[in-house]
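re: ur question from earlier - yeah i can do the single chain one, its not a big deal. heres the input i used so u can compare w yours
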Amino acid sequence: MKIKTTPLGKTLLPFAALTLLLSVVGGEAAAQAPSDAMRHEFEGWVQNVTTSDAHEYNATDSAGNPMDTAKIIADPAGGYMAIYHTEEANGTFIVYLATSTDLMHWTHQAQLGINASQPYITYLPDGGFVTAWEQTPNNHIHFNYYGSRSALLAATPAKTFDAPMTLSTCAEGTPSIYSAALSPNMGQSTLDVGGHFYDNCVADREQRGTLTNFNSWSTSVQPGMNNAILAFGIQGNIGARDAVNYRGYSLGLIEGQLTAGDWGSWRIFCYDYQTGNADQLSIITDGGSQSFGGPKVTSLIAPNEKPAIVITTFIFGQGNAPGEAGELIYYKTYDFSSAGGAVPVSLDSWYNRTGIVSDGATFSGGLDGSGDAYSSYLTGALPAWNVPPFLLGPVNSPNVASAAGETIPLPAGQFATLQMLGTGIKGSQPNQTISVAYTDGSSSTLTQSLSDWSAPQNFIGESDALTMAYHDGSSGAAENQTTYLYRYLFGLDNTRTVSSVTLPDDSNMESVALTLVPVTGANFALTSDSSSLSVGAGDTTVSIVTLTPSVAGGFTLPVSLGCNVAPAGPVCSISPVTLTPTFVSTAQVTIQAASSVPPGSATVTVTATSGNLTAATKISLAVTPPETYSLSAGTASPASINPGATSQAAVTVNSAYGYTGTVSLSCSVSSNVTFNGDQAVCSFGSTSPASVSASGGTATMTFFTIGLSASIWHRRPKVLFALMLPIFGIALMGFGSCANGASRRKKMAAVLLLGMMLTTVIAIPACGGVSNSGGGGGGGNPATPAGTYTVTITAKDANGAAPTNTNPVTVSITVN
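and the output i got, formated as tokens:
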């Protein structure tokens, strides 16, 4: 949100800012610290005034007013502004405002308050300002809201509020503003405010309060912060504090008085908001001063266009070096590469539209080519704590790159994300393809949909960087229509060195700024439970990603999650899209491939972002044909049988691409000989349907035959018994004849001979003509004819899907 207009007319939106730190500075912190290295580096720069880029002792404004306890921010109109107090000769404290172009020389602008001290100022996304100071009588915190810069310079607040004292009956003051959130204006707002209270009217201690809708105040004691400073043997007051985001870590400066009543015993401490750790600082000045209070710190862009830490502190007269007492202002710059490695990308050679103009300026074309453009005054309100540094083009000149398929060189380095400020015009611009090339010849293809600048669609990978109440027309008049500037994040392969980025050929896609951001400094890690996955066309798969805080006790800021798939085809979504990983947290990534997606490979990139901190993990994705199954059968056993025997064959249902389910099997019999339906039969019995897992399933086919029928032989004894009856009858006749005359022996012999002849005549036809067919009056099935029999196997699953076999599955059996 803090900006600096450079000599070239460019605006550099900085790496971090103090005044909107709700997403950066948490409340009471946990113990322990992986942030030690960053904290100590920050402390080294704060402690050594003599090695700063520039410093000024006993700073005053152009009217000769001492600039005690100055809070410096970037002026949205260019340069810097400071709010401070001066003690008049009669003991009255007055709050003033001044501006500067170099941080060392200050031009008096306005008197903002009387009987006021320890002031603080915050710039808001709506272009307004909030100030806070300690007001007397009845020392309490007083707030002013100014709707614009001109209202601030005129000292005409639109709203005021006096916070009631709730923790002390004596004094509450030295305010600092951690954050100011508007939803959408000051009437629906939340200010997160630090301060001190005069505990039991004995000593100052830390408090933290909330101003809601600029009309309701609540506050509480901060025991963790107090105890961290008291641990150094503080016997006096703990008072003013300020905070800054440095390399993704929330760090603060706090004053503490070692000995009550001794002004020469004031010292400055560095407080780590992540961990609750504190360190006493040994500030080195040219003259060796020892006593410091009222610290303020801001991250902004220095006059040389580098990111800088700007520190102000009051040097007490007691025990300090001659000529150094009064307000000390100094700053230290550092390269972007050391600021977490974020590097803005220059678009100078590709600007082709004037998309950002100053209010009141006349122009042609504009962002949309039809005479409309962003207001440079409002784009200066971009909340820098929520983005890495972005380099904006010169106002009232070509400063937006309308996509035309151009290839833009990138600063060499290994980065986790490419981040863009941009928008669509003339409607949403879906599925725009951006290609990032690496020095090894490989590339990443990134796809993003962009909302129209007046109609956000909340596309995946798109977030609202800035909401503006109006935009400018070509005549110079403001047009009261809400417009938006969006932020986009593209995951990169941070193991490769980037070379260039190629934009799509779509003149309705507008790139305002590009920045490359590495993983360096991130204090959370993102991992996936799968390094590789496969998904069938028309199917869905999932992966669980884990967000692990590297800060003991948790990472207390919201982390936004997103994902993309390259090359395009499969799509991914993630739930939830935001995590606050106080402990280890997880989210589910769902990857879906439409049935029309061809088989192939892709990469799913999942990103986690909080402010300028980014972590990423990648999943290799194989897109396969749809899940299905095939059949195979073993050789019949035995392969050759006699009629009446059976044979079996194992049938396997082979799972393809993870298929599972139940498959019903059926079979039919054919042969090279003629047979009826009962003579050769096949069945799967209870083995169908077969249960199929990812490793497959099995069933057993049984082939049945019919043997030679034996039923006729079971009927022969009855027939022979019937044929014997005439013999018994003739014998009886013979006995009768012998009784009535002739030679009884001759008659008996004749009768026996006749009976034997009759028996032979009747028995011969009865015993002849046995047929293999089993026909005649005996009944039964004929045996299975000899030949080669083929069993054909078919299948369908519960959804009616057939196997993928292109040739029929068969089993061959020989019947002898």
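The radius of gyration is 47 Å. not sure if urs matches, ping me
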